[in-house]
Design brief:
The mean pLDDT is about 95. An eight-stranded mixed β-sheet has the order 6-3-8-2-9-1-11-10, with helices on both faces. It is built from ten helices and eleven strands. It has a single domain, classed as Protocatechuate 4,5-dioxygenase, Chain B, CATH 3.40.830.10. About 35% of the residues lie in helices and about 20% in strands. The chain is globular and about 45 Å long. The protein is α/β, with parallel strands linked by helices. Bound molecules: 3,4-dihydroxybenzoic acid (DHB) and fe (iii) ion.
Length: about 280
């Protein structure tokens, strides 16, 4: 029987991809951000997951504004990282797990979620930057990946409650997988940021820390927010927090916080990372 070993979160700021490629881990500007990751590597070395289900959002690479699915799941043998315009060095190819993908798709569909299934799927910085931070070069990674893409870019986006419920259905799907894989669920993106419009540069540290606190033991409180509340508090692109909430939904029962980090680099994003372990 499959085991869910826990959940991981990480912001996916594109400039992190460039800093990673240039190995700026000890650069004074980047150090407070990168210092979180060796702790996460320690946890991963201990838990040794075989599969990572990565809940992220596409920023215009695989889907564009003309066709924007609410929930899309990859069912491909491999996923290529491509560049949607940031000039980030590409990180290679992520191995997939089509059999588990189809199990998830069937299980979640039976719970009345309507999915877009992707037998070909390119992944952008929203997926590749955190995957690289956690597992390094995908060509050498022992982990197989399942991309789960939720629309955060074109309204109407799914509500926090819907994403939390989607995560719960995902958790039940993983728990019913007969394989013996160890699975980690990842939520990427956030925390507060707004990249355009009158509030460009908006960050809400107080709200970010509130979310990082509540997501551990009271995720239902966060799921009560409307999309409007979330955009108001977190900024237009900070609405990516619904991806963290979907991750938390997939962790059935009580969790403990193994580590967390929060830092605001000049990239106009409240950058957070967490490790949650099932109690
Ligand atoms: C930026 C882009 C993102 O997709 C994100 O989640 C955070 C920051 C950026 O362009 O800086
Ligand atoms: Fe993003």
């Amino acid at each position: 029987m499959a085991t869910i070993v826990g959940g991981l979160t990480s912001s996916h700021i594109p400039s992190v991809g460039n800093a990673y490629a240039k190995k700026l881990f000890n650069d004074p500007y980047w150090k407070p951000f990168f210092d979180a990751y060796p702790k996460i590597h320690g946890w991963l070395d201990e838990k040794k997951p075989d599969v990572a289900v990565v809940i992220y959002n596409d920023h215009g690479l695989n889907f564009f504004l003309d066709k924007m699915p609410t929930f899309a799941i990859g069912a491909a043998p491999a996923y290529n990282n491509q560049d949607e315009g940031w000039g980030i060095p590409l990180v290679g190819t992520f191995k997939g797990h089509p059999a588990l993908s189809w199990h998830i798709i069937n299980s979640i569909s039976a719970e009345n979620f309507d999915l877009t299934t992707c037998q070909e799927m390119a992944v952008d910085h929203g997926f590749a930057v955190p995957a690289q931070l956690f597992w390094g070069n995908p060509d050498e990674s022992p982990v197989r990946f399942i991309p789960v893409c939720i629309n955060t870019v074109q309204h109407p986006i799914p509500t926090p409650a819907r994403c939390y419920a989607f995560g719960q259905a995902l958790g039940r799907a993983l728990a019913s997988w007969p394989g013996d894989e160890k699975i980690v669920v990842v939520g990427t993106g956030g925390l507060s940021h707004q990249l355009d419009g009158e509030r460009a540069g908006f960050i809400n540290k107080k709200f970010d820390l509130y979310c990082m606190d509540k997501i551990v033991n009271e995720p239902e409180e966060l799921a009560k927010m409307t999309t409007h509340d979330l955009v108001l508090e977190a900024g237009a692109q900070g609405a990516e927090f619904i991806l963290w909430l979907a991750m938390r939904g997939a962790l059935q029962g009580t969790v403990t916080k193994v580590m967390e980090n929060y830092h605001i680099p000049i990239s106009n994003t409240g950058a957070g990372s967490m490790v949650l372990e099932l109690a």
